[in-house]
UniProtKB/TrEMBL annotation:
Organism classification: Eukaryota, Viridiplantae, Streptophyta, Embryophyta, Tracheophyta
Sequence ranges assigned to domain Core Histone H2A/H2B/H3 in this UniProt record: 56-128
InterPro entries reported for this sequence: H2A/H2B/H3, Histone-fold, Transcr_DNA_Rep_Reg
CDD domains: HFD_NFYC-like
Record family assignment: Belongs to the NFYC/HAP5 subunit family.
Subcellular localization, as worded in the UniProt entry: Nucleus
Bias-annotated ranges (Polar residues): 210-224
Start-end of Pro residues biased regions: 12-32
GO annotation, cellular component aspect: nucleus
Keywords recorded for this protein, A-Z: Activator, DNA-binding, Nucleus, Transcription, Transcription regulation
Residue ranges, annotated region (Disordered): 1-32, 204-224
Annotated source species: Lotus japonicus
Gene Ontology MF annotations: DNA-binding transcription factor activity, RNA polymerase II-specific; protein heterodimerization activity; RNA polymerase II cis-regulatory region sequence-specific DNA binding
Name this protein carries in UniProt: Core Histone H2A/H2B/H3 domain-containing protein
Length: 224
């Protein structure tokens, strides 16, 4: 009887070699997500830091990437605008240049995700859909493109902004395809090449061209 009682009261131990229990479903997200978010924010800060430094050192106010006469004509489309100062179109020209550059970078990243070398309208729609500051453009983007991209982005980490590639690397328009973690669906490293040459050497190589200078006619036929 004593032996039976001791056998019944002895605690039970799991057999050796039993795997540990799985982690709870609400475990913390993987570390690469937070590292990626911080890295992208740093790249964005680098981009705007470079732009501020470039603007501070600008001495030539006659050469512009966009025609000032065309910008001034658009500004005068508002009937309430009577007079426009000389520096206002210059500021608009730079603002439009930065807008085009950023939207192009974000669109190109989407094209790279799909292994393409040509920007398409769905790439621009994707950049607009994924970026909150571009939501004012939703109404002018084809609805089919918006719906298609929204369905693809719904399950992704929409809170992660696109990054700007680090500066100081070899020049070129092409950037590498970002690596993606299949488990989390987010990018884990930036592309290898930079877009710095786009805004640094555009005026030198004539890729954008100049407008409104040296008495040459602008797009609307007017002289600068």
């Amino acid at each position: 009887m004593d032996n039976n009682h001791q056998a019944q009261s002895a605690p039970s131990y799991p057999p050796t070699g039993t795997p540990p229990p799985p982690p709870p479903p609400n475990a913390a997200p993987p570390a690469p997500f937070h590292h990626l978010l911080q890295q992208q924010q740093q790249q964005l800060q680098m981009f705007w830091t470079y732009q501020r430094q470039e603007i501070e050192h600008v001495n030539d106010f006659k050469n512009h990437q966009l025609p000032l006469a065309r910008i001034k004509k658009i500004m005068k489309a508002d009937e309430d605008v009577r007079m426009i100062s000389a520096e206002a179109p210059i500021l608009f020209a730079k603002a439009c240049e930065l807008f085009i550059l950023e939207l192009t970078i974000r669109s190109w990243l989407h094209a790279e995700e799909n292994k393409r070398r040509t920007l398409q309208k769905n790439d621009i729609a994707a950049a607009i859909t994924r970026t909150d500051i571009f939501d004012f453009l939703v109404d002018i983007v084809p609805r089919d493109e918006i719906k298609e991209e929204a369905s693809l982005v719904a399950a992704a980490a929409s809170g992660v902004p696109y990054y700007y590639p680090p500066m100081g690397q070899p020049a070129g328009m092409m950037i590498g395809r970002p690596a993606m973690d299949p488990a989390t669906g987010v990018y884990v490293q930036p592309p290898s090449q930079a877009w710095q040459s786009v805004w640094q050497t555009a005026a030198d190589d004539g890729s954008y061209g100049t407008a409104g200078t040296s008495g040459q006619p602008n797009l609307d036929g007017s002289q600068s």
